[in-house]
Amino acid sequence: MTTGAYRVARAAGCLKATFAVAVGMNLAEALWDPAGVGWRAARAAASVLFTVALVAYAVLRVLRWRRARSEHP
């Protein structure tokens, strides 16, 4: 696996993990109503981490795609 493919795969793994955390938190909130500063901070942190993972994955995919297009005219 090339370095670019490894980075994309690692970013995809991080995206899957943060997605699982976000879904788990949504499920917890649907089943019972957690409240408090700690829960709000955890939700904010999960949102930020998911957004960062999504953007990183998208950027790496686009860069890898552009690199592949430029190598094979």
Give the tags.
elongated; single chain; about 70 residues; mainly alpha; about 90% helix
Question: What is shown here, in short?
Answer:
This protein has two helices and no strands.
What does this structure look like?
The chain has 73 residues and is an all-alpha fold. The protein is 88% helix and 0% strand. It is built from two helices and no strands.
Structural class: mainly alpha
Shape: elongated
Beta-strand content bin: under 5%
What is the succession of H and E elements? HH
Termini Cα gap:
22 Å
Uncertain segments are none
Task: Give me the secondary-structure topology.
Layout lengths: L2 H29 L5 H35 L2
Helix pairs in contact: 1-2
